Every structure is written in structure tokens, then in C-alpha cells.
Amino acid sequence: MMDSGNKNEMTNSAAPAFSDNAAHTRLTCRGDLTAFLMQLSAAIGGDSYMLLALVHDQTRLNARIVASNWIFDAIELVGQRLIATLAQDPLNTAPGTRPRPLVAAQAPQTGGLVSGEEAKMLSVLGHAELYSLRLNVGRQRLFLLFSAAEPGSLDATALAWAQMQCCYALSQIPELLAEASMQDPLSDRERECLFWVSEGKTTDETALILGVSSNTVNGYITHAIQKLSASNRAMAIATAIRSGII
Amino acid sequence: MQAREARQSAEALFNQNRSPFGAFSLGSETHHAVTIPDAVRRCRWIAVDLNASGFGLFFVSPSMERARLVPCFDSDYPGVSVSSKFMSGSNGEDMVRHARVSTSPRWWADGGAPGPEATFRDLLWTERTAPMVPGSSGIAFPVHAERGQCGLVVFLGDEMALSQEAVYETHARCYALFRAVARIRPGEAGRTGIISKRELECLKLAANGHTSEDIARLLKLSVHTANQYLTQTTQKLNAVNRTQAVAKALRLGLIE
User: In Å, how far is A244's CA from the nearest CA of chain B?
Assistant: First the structure.
């Protein structure tokens, strides 16, 4: 039985030298991304990975999977909702914090969102130990789930390094991510208008700032509201800020 | 001299195995309020580990119109170093564009000495860029916090030492530092009055696209009261209208 206190103790020597044999430090296409994530997952002692973005749909956050080697049935059984929950869990790991497992067979749940039953289901599906890492690619936010069937096989120090490597790797393929997460459907002009509205400017003031007529400004904002599937200006602003567009 | 003192106090404070996530990852960032002098000290520890002679933390303005770096503090705190003045000038514009879309560290070597270039050249995942400060060498780490806040932590020096693992570690520490600074950044957050639970509920519903009538019905209030709550919140947040109040509350993290 592994003692949870021991497990949290970190040693510097634990970091495996996967940077030495990193064949994929230049990513250009989807295939590179898959190869990179496979290699990284193996290097930290994990079995599965899932890279996902959270997108706003009306008032709910949905998970949009960018890349994953979870078996299809597992995704079906676990469901979109729980996957989105795993990403948002307060126990998830921001860059620069000590990685904490969301699902671990031995450790009792401490403030996480995953219920005992859900943890059991994940465990049966081969995710007995699961970490949720927050990734920042510029201002874009993504989430990476690393998991292993055998509890205790993932190395926390290696995870922290892997987290930074993923941020770097994904920075090289912004267009691939934008396409996958469809985070920014707005045109430059629409975004500009929305920004000024969020600063409290009225339509007329925005028109003056941008040097166009107020009808044009209203048109841009209406389009932006439609594209963000919002019901009014306040909601469009909220959606845009939440997804990091403005 | 100062750096060595800081180092000693750091070691005394965290008398244990050095954490790979930096000396301040022991849950401290969520539990203890941090001040700017604290943050400067933290940043100095990182600089000492890299053998850097200077450092600086900058904010990237959320407005697309403004492409300049805004200095928060640097190694001359409470003053402002000459390097920071260079970086917050037009030299920083390219870096601002970079930090908005990428997390890759960028380095430059313009000191004339071969050392820095030899150190940085072999690092994976990093890019070379034009010198941010003429005649210097340094490395800049883009950092991001909740609510789309974006910044840059820069280390300068002609004798910096940086291994591949140290890139990951340093960058992770910079992230933790920036998140702490972003939370306490003087300005808006400190000056807002206390917003009541009821007012926040109204604001949350407004952010989700509900009209005053909807809010009144959902919270079992009169339309007048719902409007009054929203007007009060707008005033407390120093906003001019409801839309700006929603934007400000989201950016400050008052609502999700």
C-alpha cells in the first residue's frame, strides 16, 4: 500500500530525461501532435492522454476533444459532461503548481468534483490515476488529462515538466488549435467593437473611436452576438471574456 | 549581496528539500496574500538560480490597440531600471504580439560575449529574437493568468546558466509568480466596494443573457429591485453601464 504522504514528497532526481530523446520538438501537423503526446504520455509513465478545449454553449461549458487515445467506448461511457468536469475540477493543475491527482485509488477525495462512483467508473475504464493539467497557449486555454491504469505510475515531477513542454509544443500549431477549438469565430472588426462595448462605450462612442457610422457598429455587434449564440450584448461580452476572445 | 541575503532567508523559510516547483508552491499562493515586495523577492530567488543580474515583470495590456509592455516591477524595485524603460518602449511590441499567442520562451544575445549565446542556443522549445535591450543578453518567459491576463517575466545577464530542465522549472515558477501578482495587482480590485451576494447573483444572471424581467422572476424580486441591485453593482465597480459591469466583474474574477 502506498502512503499518500510519501507520494507527495518530491525528489529532484525523479525527472526522466525525455527531453534528450525528444524527436518531436517541431510540430507542424496533426500527426506530429499525436506522436508528441504519445511520446510524452509514455515518458511520464501514463497510458492515456486527452487534450481538450472548453467551449461555451449558451450557459454550459462543453468539452471539445482535440486529441486523445482514450478508447471510444470510454469516452461514450464517461460522457461529455464528466470530461468537462474533469477539466474544470478545482484540483486541476495550473502551470507552476504541484500536480495533484483527480482520481487516485488510495487517496480520499479532498474537494474535487469527481464523485466516488465516477472515480470507480473511470478506474474500471483504465483511468485509476488521473491528472488534469491546465495549459496556456498564448491566451488560449486548453486542458490535458493524463491517466494510468495502474495507480502510482505517473510521476508528478515529470508531469510538471511535461505540462510546460505541451504549452511550448502547442504554441507551434496555433492554427490547428483554433480550428479544433473554434474559440474565436469573430472577425477583427467585430472583436474590436465588442472590446469597446466591454469598456462601457456606447454605440455612438464606439463609432467615433473606430471612425465608422453607428449603424455599422451596430451591425458588427449584432453579428458578434449571433456568432457567439448570445441573447444580448451583456451575454456576448461575458461569453467573449470567458473564452478569452477579448 | 542583497541577492545572497534573499537566498538565505528563502532557505530558512522553506527548510526542506527544494521543491521542483519553486520555493513557493506549497499551497502558499492560494492561502497567503502576497505583496509586491514579496513578489520581487520571489523573482529575485529565481534570478539567483539562473545567475541573472537583472529581472523584470511586465503586463501585456488586454486591449489590442495598445501593444506596449506595462512594467510592474524589476530588479531596481521600488525604482524602474533602464532596461525596463527600453522593454516598455517600442522594443517590446513584437514580444507583446508573441506573448498573446504563444508560450515559447524567447532569448537574445547581444552582449558581445560568447557565453549567453552558447547557453541559449541548444535549448529546445525556445526561439531567438531581436534584443529587447541593446547590448544585453536575456530570456523572456510569456506568462498567463486566469481571465486572460497576460504578461512577461524577463531575466537579463551575461553570465546566465540555464539547462533544459531549468527552462521548464523556471517557466513554471514564473507562472506561479505571475498568478500571484495578477491577483494582487494594485488598482481595480482594491478599490471596489463590497458587493453583496444578492448583487452578484443578479450580475451572474445578467452575464448569462437574462433581462431585468427574467432576473426579477428567477430571484423572486420586483423588476425595480433587480434593476436597483444592478445599478448599485455598476457603481461599486466604477463602471458606466451594465455591460461594462459584467465585463469588469468577469475580469476581476467576481463571477465565473
Answer: 6
Cβ neighbours of residue B163 under 8 Å, at least 6 residues apart? none
B241: contact with A, CB 8 A cutoff = yes
Q: Which pLDDT tens digit goes with each residue over A154-172? A: 888 889 999 999 999 999 8
Q: What is the pTM for the complete model shown?
A: 0.74
B227 and B212 Cβ atoms separated by less than 8 Å? yes
Q: What nine digits make up the cell of A55?
A: 467551449
First to last CA, chain A: 49
Strands B137-144, B106-109: pairing is antiparallel
Beta-carbon separation of B177 and A244 below 8 A: no
ipTM: 0.73
Tell me the average pLDDT across B147-162.
Answer: 88
* Dist CA A166 CA B104 (whole Å): 10
Q: Up-side HSE of residue A140: CA atoms within 13 Å toward CB?
A: 27
pLDDT at res. A64: 85
- B7-21, B112-126, B139-153: least confident range: B7-21
| Average pLDDT of chain A to the nearest whole number | 81
Q: SS3 helix, strand, coil % of chain B, rounded to 5?
A: 50, 15, 35
* Chain A residue whose CA is closest to B104: A168
Could you tell me the three cell numbers for A25?
520538438
Backbone angles phi, psi at B17, to 5 degrees: -55, 140
- Does the CB of B3 have a partner CB in chain A at under 8 Å? no
Is the Cβ of B93 closer than 8 Å to some Cβ of chain A? no
How distant, in Å, are the alpha carbons of A28, A96, A245, B219 from that of B60? 27, 20, 15, 39
Each residue of A58-105: pLDDT tens digit?
556 788 888 999 988 889 888 888 888 888 887 788 888 888 888 775
Give the distance from residue A28's alpha carbon to the nearest chain B alpha carbon, in angstroms.
14
More confident residue, A106 or B227: B227
Which amino acid belongs to residue B38?
D
Which of A77-114 are b and which e, b meaning 16 or more Cβ less than 10 Å from the residue's Cβ?
A: ebeeebbbbbbbbebbbbbbbbbbbbbbeebeeeebeb
3-state secondary structure of B137: strand
Distance separating alpha carbons of residues B243 and A79, to the nearest angstrom: 35
Which amino acid is present at B12?
A: A
How confident is the model over B14-34, as pLDDT tens digits?
Answer: 433 344 444 444 333 443 457
